[in-house]
Amino acid sequence: MKKDWIKQVSILLITTGSWLIPYAQSVSRLHEKAIVVDTHNDCLTELTLDGKDISGHLSTGHSDLYRWKKGGLDVQFFSVWTDKTPRRPAGFFHDALEEIDSLHRIILRNPDRMTFADTYRQVKKRSHQGKLVSLIGVEGGHMIEEDLGKLDSLYTLGMRYLTLTWNNSTSWASSAMDETNYPERIKHKGLNDFGKQVVQRLNELGVMVDLSHVGEQTFYDAIAVTTKPVILSHSSVWSICPVFRNVKDDQIRAVAKNGGVICINFYSGFISKEYDQLQKRLFERKDSLQGGLLAQGLPQSNRNQIMSAFDQTYDSLMNAARPSLSQLVDHIDYIVKLVGDKYVGIGSDYDGVGSVPVGLEDVTTYPKITEELLRRGYSKKSIKRILGGNVLRVMKANF
After folding, report:
1. Which parts of the chain register pLDDT below 70?
2. Global pTM?
3. Residue 96 Cα distances to 102, 147, 171, 181, 372, angstroms
4. What is the pLDDT of residues 40-52, one digit of tens each?
5. Would 13 be classed as within a structural domain?
6. Which helix or strand (DSSP H or E) is residue 115 part of?
7. How many domains does one find in the chain?
8. pLDDT tens digits, residue range 7-24?
9. Domain containing 135 — which CATH number?
10. From CA 185, how far away is CA 181, in angstroms rounded?
């Protein structure tokens, strides 16, 4: 009896293994043949400016050249970002120049592993050379400092998309953050005349108009002005996770009508409604706890100890609430079912977010998305579009 059971288990393992091996090979081959494009990574700000060398194998952060290679990434848009207060007294534009310079220096130090591209033809050609093709996306219109000449300069230095706003509005475009939560901060809702000139100038130069982070009024104003397909470099689906940074069904339809592409953001709080709601509740409790401790007049050392314990509990609860890889692919699925498979891509926001879904811990994990799409019955043609083909199409239409 025992021998029969062992024999049955052995047969099961052998036959299961014989099925899994070719399946894994199929996923690997498909991922390798696809041109995999990620439209948003913040490592220049979060790692490079902090003195970390992404050409080495880092133990922190989401990204480095070794891990990109393992993840099969072919094309990376490096985000050039600075906060609503500039890092240097020289201002926002100078901050952008510093980051762009840091990227070019990394490429110069790693010519066998990285290459730069600023035209569609270069991207297509160089994506087959075994190097990471690097492009620049400037995240936030405040970095042009209301000067079209500075916009032109950023284009000359390689900018190939401009996110019209970050969370902060400019005088010429209102952000999603402000339109949703702080309307009193807005000088002009949507695009004013200068904002429309910015969109027109981007079209003339061949720079993609990026509508991630912008408010709904700015979104629709830009869609009305642009003559070329737009990109949302790192946004997810509002109907699944209703937060200010995600896009609603009518916006998704508008992007499809425009011929643009929406690249899914990996941040846990933009993927899972439950994660976002838990985080809000815990933030409220933290504020309440801090206020209560102050009211009690406890010594600073005691307050620090209590808040440190709270932070540890917070980290544990939020880590347990991280969404799954499958939940992220639900966002891709939603867009495909709503408007088709030609209008969705990947914009991870790696090294710009504090939490990502389980299974997508760093840039080595892109093949898991390929595997999940294949498991759901997507055709190889559709998967190639989602992994990068759709973004390439929008690049071609712009530059």
Report:
1. 1-22
2. 0.93
3. 10, 14, 19, 27, 37
4. 999 999 998 889 9
5. no
6. strand 114-116
7. 1
8. 443 444 444 444 445 677
9. 3.20.20.140
10. 9
